[in-house]
Amino acid sequence: MPDSREIRIDPATNTLIRQGVPSIVNFYDLHGLEEALRIKEETGARVTVVTMGPPPAEKSLKTCIALGADEAVLVTDRGFAGADTLATSYVLAKTIQKVEQEWGKVDMVFCGKQTLDGDTGQVGPGIACRLDLEQLTYVSEVKQVDPIRRTVRVGRKLEDGAETVETRMPVLLTALKELNRVRRASLPGVIRGHRYKPIVWTTADFPDLDRSQIGLKGSPTIVAKTWVPEAKKVTCQWLSGENAQAAAAGACDALWDNNLPARLGWIRGGAVHD
């Protein structure tokens, strides 16, 4: 994803300007990668990292290789530009199918719960629906992976609590930051990542790709307007008193004079009443 600290919007198309903006690995995706690497260490699995984006995304893939991924695929083409979550999930689903053709059956797909720039949380479930995968979202703990029974048991965080769920592979999981602590790359890993050349796939590598479902053509989401919120003027007033009680009384009077009690309750005599 583009570094959110340097995001710019094209005023004509209302899409992100990616040229000249550095790419970073999405924070939640790193936790998904970490869990995949832990399962690799326990079971001998193979970890393939995939991203759709412009050529500079190669740097982020090198980071993933340095952490321990086996191979990395960059899906890049001008035809993919301007994709919303629907078009993105379509291309990534096609990519996962091609990964299966190249390196064998995919048992588990890890995604972050959402991206830091979009916050929709739709791409992971969208991939699962397109590939007919079981999906476990908002995963905070992978309790057990049984390659013999081909089952996965996880802990999930919900709005009103938590639950433990077990399902069968193949499965897609979306990761929360509570899932694990992301490792630091080792020196040999950093060297390997620096030397690694990601595999690059374009639209030409997908002969059955429906071009009406990619890029802006395949994106029904329309951004009507974008703008930067105006900075709000903030004023402050310094209050003092002979002691803490006098200062508190002065603060209460100042709040009362500014009609704050009408919104937050009422304050008098140094005590707050709701």
What does this structure look like?
- This protein has 274 residues and is α/β, with parallel strands linked by helices.
- It has two domains: 6-213, Rossmann fold (3-Layer(aba) Sandwich), CATH 3.40.50; 227-274, no CATH class.
- The chain has seven helices and ten strands.
- The protein has helices at 27-43, 58-67, 85-103, 123-131, 187-195, 244-257, 261-264, and strands at 48-52, 71-75, 108-112, 134-146, 151-158, 161-168, 171-175, 199-201, 266-268, 271-273.
- A five-stranded mixed sheet has the order 3-7-4-5-6, sandwiched between helices. Strands 1-2-8 form a three-stranded parallel sheet, with helices on both faces. Strands 9-10 form a two-stranded antiparallel sheet.
- Helix 2 packs antiparallel against helix 5 (187-195) and helix 3 packs across helix 4 (123-131).
- InterPro entries: ET-Flavoprotein_bsu_CS, ETF_a/b_N, ETF_b, ETF_beta_N, Rossmann-like_a/b/a_fold.
- Pfam families: ETF (PF01012).
Question: Beta-sheet strand percentage?
Answer: 15-25%
| Domain unit count | 2
Q: What's the N-to-C terminus distance?
A: 45 Å
What is the oligomer described by this structure?
single chain
Overall morphology: globular
- Predict the CATH topology of the largest domain: Rossmann fold
Q: Provide the succession of SSEs.
A: HEHEHEHEEEEHEHHEE
Low-confidence parts lasting 5 or more residues at pLDDT below 50? Answer: 266-270
Overall mean pLDDT stands at 87
- What is the rounded Rg? 25 Å
Strand arrangement, largest sheet? Answer: 3-7-4-5-6
Helical amount: 25-40%
CATH architecture of the largest domain: 3-Layer(aba) Sandwich
Instruction: Report the structural category.
Output: alpha/beta
How is the biggest beta sheet arranged?
Answer: 5 strands, mixed
Number of strands: 10
Number of helices: 7
CATH superfamily of the largest domain: HUPs
The level 1 CATH classification of the largest domain is Alpha Beta
Protein name: Electron transfer flavoprotein small subunit
Family: Belongs to the ETF beta-subunit/FixA family.
GO molecular function: electron transfer activity
Cofactor: AMP
